[in-house]
Amino acid sequence: MGSDKPYKLDEQIGFILRRATQRHLALFSEAIPVVTTTQFAVLARLQELGPMSQNHLGRETAMDAATIKGVVGRLAKLGFVETSHDPNDRRRVIVALTPAGHQVYAQMVDQALAVSDQTLAPLTEQERARLLALLSKLV
Amino acid sequence: MGSDKPYKLDEQIGFILRRATQRHLALFSEAIPVVTTTQFAVLARLQELGPMSQNHLGRETAMDAATIKGVVGRLAKLGFVETSHDPNDRRRVIVALTPAGHQVYAQMVDQALAVSDQTLAPLTEQERARLLALLSKLV
DNA sequence: CGGCATTTGTTTGCATGCAAATCAGTTTGA
DNA sequence: TCAAACTGATTTGCATGCAAACAAATGCCG
Fold this sequence. Notes:
The structure is a homodimer. The first copy, chain A, is mainly alpha-helical. Chain A has helices at residues 13-31, 37-49, 54-60, 65-78, 99-119, 125-138, and strands spanning 52-53, 81-85, 93-97. In chain A, helix 1 crosses helix 5. The radius of gyration of chain A is 18 Å and the shape is globular. Chain A binds a DNA duplex through residues 22, 25-26, 29, 36-39, 53-56, 63-67, 69-71, 74, 89-93.
């Protein structure tokens, strides 16, 4: 028959994750209006790892092929990345930061760190480390 | 100049939250294909609190007015909720579960709890409680 | 070598999710 | 009371995010 535990929405991990994400996104877009969190993730990965194929970039930033295409397209329209064809593999689209992309990343990275800090502001230093460790285990 | 801390995408709370959410959504949609997590949240709140206005329902489920309208519309098309006008306030749209909505909620609630469990599967009982407590503080 | 599986990328369709503008109805306060 | 402020709802526009179907190019294996 019925379950022994009641279902309390406010205690479900999915609901809490969604609300925490909402809060983080709001803080980010307020601090860094020029790009979104996902767009910034792309800039960060390209900065870190250098140019790579579009699908590879998607895997590095946890976006599927359809999603990364849209993100790259919008970043290209903003002038922050540019795409070229891989001469060794005609399927591949190579995505690279433009000088403007490098610059905006460099200008924004401190603010991005500040947003991460703001998001975790209700927690002590120890709690932050614990939360990140626990959350990381879920993936 | 520059920041003292390097920016590591994999350690940013926003990126980790996004990936954890992705994992949870994948588990949910596999276990419960008929409705999405947000749609299920709406069913749960209506079950818990009874009929209420559309915007109120949005606040109860952490969705803004534009989003809750779409979710309610899709649930109505599925036959799980129905809307009516509040005779005391002609602006309001009252949203209520249909018998089919009650039924699908009752049938799925155990599975929804199982999905929450699956999402937290990598953690011990103590770690789960800690994670939920820490995450809840962020909101 | 040649066919088949794999990989890369694109497109379509659907479902959130938020900002901003707008309209209708209700409440409040001078 | 009546205008202003507020609330509820809708619409538009933009940005993820995923599934599925497809085409093109590459890799592998018999």
